[in-house]
Amino acid sequence: MSIVKINNVDKTFFTKKAATTALKDISLSIEDGEFVSLIGPSGCGKTTLLSLIAGLFQPTNGEINIEGQQILRPSPKTGYMLQQDYLFPWLTIEQNITLGLKTMKKLNETTRENALSLLDKMGLLDKRRDYPSQLSGGMRQRVALVRMLATEPSLLLLDEPFSALDYQTKLKLEDLVSLTLKEQKKTAILVTHDIGEAIAMSDRIILLSARPGTIHQVFDVPEVLRQLAPFKARNHSEYNKLFQHIWKELESLEEENI
Hints:
The protein has 10 helices and 10 strands. The strands form 2 sheets. It has a 6-stranded mixed sheet, sandwiched between helices. 38% of the residues lie in helices and 25% in strands. This is Spermidine/putrescine ABC transporter ATP-binding protein. Residues 4-231 form the ABC transporter domain.
């Protein structure tokens, strides 16, 4: 079943002096439990598309549906995880992970215990009474993931959530996030500039063309890679083949844009 349906979406930004088309004629379906990555040249509209799916603003043309409902505004159906964790420094970790539940008026003993159980799975239950300033960057991103999962969204939107981390922490978090999402059977869309990350974590990879962004090509990640944790997938021969294929396509797009 398709969780997300994007139908003939365009997005143009208008100012007093100019109109800039960021996306043109985007049509895409994402299935329940699927992990899809968006890649492409800088400025191709990856984050714009994610923001449209989140309901942060509306398409100029076309429509986006999540679970059959047209998205006209931000919805509790979606959770958003960004490059920065945006934890509130004056709140404890427990208060931060339950803030979404409190805002949605869903905070009770059951939902609190579920949030703390997620924190425990991230290996951070002993940090529940600490403040964000007492945690490392990788720990803070794990807390941000728990905060997002605690509200039980149908769709997770990930906008380069590992890009600010050191490489070793990034690889560890890729494995942790991938395992967590598979266990919870979540549907996710990842925006990334990292081809390797997209291959290691995804079921499908959508390559957007240079602005205005259109769907240039769709790559299916081989089943053998999808069954592996991201770190192990990076060491498989099929990973290298797909990496080279995507790299050449991305380079050709960037050359066209020069």
